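[SOLVED] Predicted holo structure with adenosine-5'-triphosphate

Edit: marking solved, answer below. Original request kept for reference. I posted the sequence and ligand SMILES and asked for the 3D complex as structure tokens.
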Amino acid sequence: MSSVVVEGVTKSFGSRVLFADRSFVVEPGQMTALTGPSGSGKSTLLNCVGLLEKVSAGSITVDGRDITRLRPAGARRFRRDTLGYLFQNYALVENASVRANLQIARAPGHRGGPGLGLDEALKRVGLDGMEQVPVYQLSGGEQQRVALARLLVKAPTVVLADEPTGALDQVNADMVLDALRDLAAGGAAVLVATHSRHVVDACSDEVRIG
Ligand SMILES: Nc1ncnc2c1ncn2[C@@H]1O[C@H](COP(=O)(O)OP(=O)(O)OP(=O)(O)O)[C@@H](O)[C@H]1O
């Protein structure tokens, strides 16, 4: 179980301050919506928690460790063992099969929950029978569902989702929200950047920036 403690975080690009002195906590079991106008820095803040961007000031503590101070090897371990993400570009290996993309999620040493088996996860997202298909042959919505299945297999203790229902129809959007809620119910700390009221309503609380 991991809580994410964001304390006094500021992010600037050059002289432009995107957000300043932001503090909030996402507890294990909580699904928090991150909202704010377009350009306010929601994706950037998720990227800071995912260690894809550096904070300009402040700390982000997970399991009592300030992850903004991790060296590259520690950052890699954090991403591999603790973090799961559902971003707009899906971050899948396009030439590999659906099954291979899910197998990567269970790297040795990961510290997530028990997670779903591969077959169960594929069934859950409606992609059973497609294990051998290379990802590049799938539609955008199907790729999004592979990324979701990968999260369910990994069962990470910190989950970051960036506009996870943006490109999906209602049925698939609800599938994504149900899965994220299940991860939270299993003890994950889930942070979801969104403009959608429907997504905010599915969350247990809301942090606004901008
Ligand atoms: N590497 C970078 N260098 C300079 N500016 C950047 C960089 N990354 C993001 N920005 C700027 O920071 C601002 C915030 O972007 P971000 O994508 O975090 O906003 P957002 O709140 O997620 O927006 P949206 O709701 O439209 O997705 C944007 O104006 C963007 O151009």
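OP edit: Helices lie at 42-49, 72-81, 98-105, 118-124, 140-154, 170-185, 197-202. Thanks to everyone who chimed in.
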